[in-house]
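User: For my dataset I need records formatted as: sequence, then structure tokens, nothing else. Please produce one.
Assistant:
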Amino acid sequence: MSDAPADPKEPTPAEVALVQPPAKSKLIPILLAVNMAGMVGVGAFTVMKSNAQAAPPAAKKHAPAEGAEEEAAAEDEAEAGGEGHEGAKKGGSTVKLEDFTVRLRNPEADRFARVSFEVEVGSDKDRERLVAAMARVRDAFIGELTERTAEELRGNEGLSNMKATLFKKLKELVPNAHVRGLYITDFIVQ
């Protein structure tokens, strides 16, 4: 018996598999389209977020136009409990405080907290008053935060207690500003 193929022109099964093109799959183009759409969405979200963060706080709410100071005064009055003005229903503008990084009171080890806040105020005048008192506000917040332990800041109750204490201090430090709220925007304990 000879080891030579019976007909030299007849291809072997391995050669047939190499010659025939593979069946076209529709899965790859679909996956490419989904991946591309996801990348475009993430890119758009990133651009929008960076544009929102790049805007200065004053650009978030426009200053009152000339002759509109009476409206601002009426809005302040309505927010303080006046009647019949729709300005009290609107959300106020916010002032972002610079991040606070403090060493927590912990006798066993060095623990640090990084906290970011935004303060909601009633009007642009309130914003100006808060910004003018920013050094006192930061000093008081740092003093209060350094007196806390990591355990006191743990959980929703701990954060709520800290926020209530800081809100009360804020109202004491800037009594002539209508402060609507204090919001924790970032919180890390290490």
